[in-house]
Write a structure and sequence with these properties.
One of its GO terms (molecular function) is oxidoreductase activity. It comes from Oryza sativa subsp. indica (Rice). The chain has one domain: Sandwich (Jelly Rolls), CATH 2.60.120. The protein is of the alpha+beta class. The protein is built from 10 helices and 14 strands.
Length: about 350
């Protein structure tokens, strides 16, 4: 458990010493510079007229690849309960979480720290609880999840169903806006597990030297982030970084690289990163919609056009993941690996 910051108490010990261990210190050219961007992410009210909402979602996706949504249909109490139970999980004693800790990436349900993105010899300042769920939800789904706190399983299952429904609705809006059949993404491309990452960033002794998550693009179709009320997310924009200010009862939405491939580059997967702070812990909940491993992912024929050329090659999701892990999660590397 020495790797796990919040479970082992290492973060508190480090903070009390007032210095950051060398393994968390990024090289000077990769440390987080101060953001100067004055751009804000669009906040889209999904309860508005459908035509206007459809245009807003598509325009935000094309311009920024990120936006926030409110009045989205996920009950506020479901969001608050999920945020609360996740924070409660990370406050549990280390011994209550030890059995769930694993470095095995093939394990879909586990607790881990700093093991997703290859960043050289540096570690980044995050613990993560990962939970997987198929759809429709099977009776035994949550038996593979932690049994503490006692209400975690029920709250998380309710959150899974609600956020997946929101993701499907956003994908339908995108289909309508791009001239695809409304259910284009509702078959194989969203038939895999829904994955939840509960990201926990303990207070950091020196946020200027490290990152909670390094710059990366997502590997899935669409991501919904419940970011809480503590700032930390930044989005790449024209060579700078946009601060994503928390909006009450909102989800931050972004597109994964699979959606960029499926839309033949109409929509973009944009790099983002997580900052740390020295004052308070930050916990966010990211929901990822995924295809099954044998699903073929390639540009939609409708978006290639008669006589046109696809910009990306078609691969299975298994092959996509193999290459994604090999080249790393940086956008330029992923783009180069799959673009024709």
């Amino acid at each position: 458990m020495e790797k796990l910051l919040s479970s082992s108490g290492a973060a508190a010990a480090v903070a009390s010493q007032g210095q950051l261990p060398d393994c968390f210190v990024f090289p000077a050219d990769r440390r987080p510079p101060a953001s100067t961007a004055a751009v804000s992410l669009p906040v889209i009210d999904l309860s508005g007229p459908r035509d206007a909402v459809r245009r807003a979602v598509l325009d935000a996706g094309k311009e920024l690849g990120f936006f926030q949504v409110v009045n989205h249909g996920v009950p506020p109490e479901t969001m608050r309960e999920m945020a609360a139970v996740c924070e409660e999980f990370f406050r549990l004693p280390a011994e209550d979480k030890a059995a769930f800790y694993s470095d095995a990436e093939e394990n879909p349900n586990r607790l881990f720290s700093s093991t997703i993105y290859e960043v050289g010899d540096q570690r980044y300042w995050r613990d993560c609880l990962r939970l997987a769920c198929g759809f429709p939800v099977a009776d035994d789904t949550n038996t593979h999840w932690p049994d503490k706190p006692h209400h975690l399983r029920d709250v998380t299952e309710k959150f899974f169903v609600a956020t997946r429904g929101l993701g499907i609705e956003l994908l339908r809006l995108l289909c309508e806006g791009m001239g695809l059949r409304p259910d284009y993404f509702e078959r194989d491309l969203t038939a895999g597990d829904v994955i939840i990452n509960v990201n926990h960033y303990p207070p950091c002794p020196d946020p200027s030297l490290t990152l909670g998550l390094p710059p990366h693009c997502d590997r899935n179709l669409i991501t919904l982030l419940l970011q809480g009320d503590v700032f930390g997310l930044q989005v790449s924009y024209n060579g700078d970084w946009i601060n994503v200010d928390p909006v009450p009862d909102a989800f931050v939405v972004n597109f994964g690289h699979l959606l960029e491939i499926a839309t033949n580059g109409v929509l973009k997967s944009i790099e983002h990163r997580a900052m740390t702070n020295s004052a308070v812990a930050r916990t966010s909940v990211a929901t990822f919609m995924m295809p099954p491993m044998d699903c073929l992912v390639g540009p939609a024929k409708e978006l290639v056009g008669d006589g046109g050329q696809p910009q990306y090659r078609t691969v299975t999701f298994r092959e996509f993941m193999r290459i994604y892990k090999t080249v790393g999660a940086r956008r330029d590397s992923v783009e180069k690996a799959f673009k024709i």
